[in-house]
Amino acid sequence: MPVYEYECRECENVFEVQQRISDDPLTHCPECDGPVRKLVSMSSFQLKGGGWYADGYSSVSGSAKNSKKTENPAPACQSGGSCSSCPAAAG
To answer: Is residue 36 a contact partner of residue 7, using CB atoms and an 8 Å limit?
Structure first.
């Protein structure tokens, strides 16, 4: 349930209330019964890094994502040998 922050216009009391999104905003202070206003607070929810946000909501289309993956160079040989000695190169 979201937490909303209010400030009383009379006693300047700042308080938080858990409310459903569908609930009406509070109109009176629980301390002095004065009028209150809803404050715009900093969100504690942040999207950082890659993860689902970059994968699920990126503006790049799926085909463009796949083509970017194929543009990356192949990883270096882990054995340190030449390609002629690699079993995958024979074929």
So the answer is: yes
Residue 16's identity, in one-letter code, is: E
Whole-structure pTM over 0.85, yes or no?
Answer: no
Are 16 and 4 a contacting pair, CB within 8 Å? Answer: yes
Task: Give the distance from CA 75 to its chain's centroid.
Answer: 31
Question: What pLDDT score was predicted for residue 42?
Answer: 75
- The values of phi and psi at residue 50, to 5°, are -80, -105
Rounded Cα distance, 30 and 10, in Å:
12
Nearest Cα to Cα of residue 29 among 49, 53, 13: 13
Cα dihedral across residues 65, 70, 71, 72: positive or negative: positive
